[in-house]
Amino acid sequence: MVKDITPELAQAVINGKFLHCKDIHDHTCEYEAIERFFKVMNIAWKFYLPIHAIPTLTFQFKLLKKRPFQFMYKLSKNVLRSCLFLATYIAVFRYGLCFFKNLRGKIDRRVVIYSGFISGFGLCWEPQGRRTELALYFLPRFIEAFWAWCKKRQWVTPIPYGEVILFAIAMAILMYCYQNEQKNIKKTYLSIFKYFWGEN
To answer: Which among 2, 54, 89, 171 could disulfide-bond with 122, CB atoms 3.0 to 4.6 Å apart, if both were Cys?
Structure first.
């Protein structure tokens, strides 16, 4: 079980002091990671079920009527894979914090970076198409965070209406693909585009 970190311990970490694992959790680091894995699994299905079910019911309702068992199997499999991804990601990250902290003998940014990197391999649970979706979802957020980091250090200067320019470029690429490369657009997205923009 994870302990509450007191203000004194938090301040000690900020001041660069080492924080022992016994100050953070009761059991071993491995036990804590496994316990965290199952806790996240128990929570994750509650929001992954509607995330997968709503688009599937909306765009593949005919499959449900024709082959209900195949539909339910596919839906259950996708929900399970997403739950495994999130649970693995969090459990590995938490374990990585302990492992790299103890390996390096200190708490610094590298501990978080290393832990975040190895936890990212939890994405292997997801199917190829879903991996691409998640990668493309996080890429703009990484770019935004990296830009803010550079701007904070005055390595770059703000671009007037930069968000509008990026949006216009993204829409241009999207419209090009819709007009000329529809095979590269996911079927669920393509059906939405056709609904609003009409057939090409």
So the answer is: 89
